[in-house]
Amino acid sequence: SVNEIQICMGSSCFARGNEKNIRLIQDFLRDHDLCSVVDLVGARCSGECGGGPNISIDDVRYEHLDRDRLLSLLRSKLLD
Prior knowledge:
alpha+beta
């Protein structure tokens, strides 16, 4: 099971979609009653801006996450 979701708060990732993605993740965790078991934490820029917006789930980095890809990823990692 997933323990931690790390969302890049660097200006590039934030501008490319993580500002919206952070809300989407918060809503997803709340809607599925996962707030107590999954930590959502902000991360400093890791220098991988070209692939942004970046999000890591248990130290595995995922790139170019738009709304649909992120929802699909959250479903597969957290609900299956």
